[in-house]
Amino acid sequence: MTCKEGAAIIEAILFTMGDSVEINALAKAMEVGVREVRDHIDYLKAKYENEDSGIGLIEIGNAVQLCTKKEMYEYLVKIAKTPKKAVLTDSLMETLSIIAYKQPITRLEVEKIRGVNSDHAVNRLVEFGLVQELGRLDAPGRPLLFGTTEEFLRSFGVKSLDELPTVGTVQVEEFKAQAEQEVNVKLDI
Question: Which CATH architecture describes the domain 90-188?
């Protein structure tokens, strides 16, 4: 195995793992001695130092890891501050669906439909910018009313709420049957 081939193998392993990898583990995976792995590591270090590269190789105890060069940190900070895309769990999707179809709706009404506390789900949807407060219901306690946002429309590729799929009576009956079946299964346990 040439030095370039060995270095490429180590580079691939370190890139894929993301964390540090012990030199002994590299030697075992490559079926070569520790000295040969060290030669490949030295080759990679020199390569990264001599090239216009944003990454480098560091040793941590008896392990090595690919890392970003310090000169690149300012760019990483800019990316790290960028908001992450929202991941919607089943409970968030369920809550979002209820709000989308029944808006304006109070949190209590959402909870009656779902059958569980929905505080966390509604709060997360507001954080993600998919749901917003629309005002207050003119009723005792003046509960907040919630509805979807323009971000919701963008995220789901619809121009207006009118483009949301309609739920037919057949589907409603199927959903009711599924819900009753789930309740019966839970009661049998």
Answer: Orthogonal Bundle (1.10)
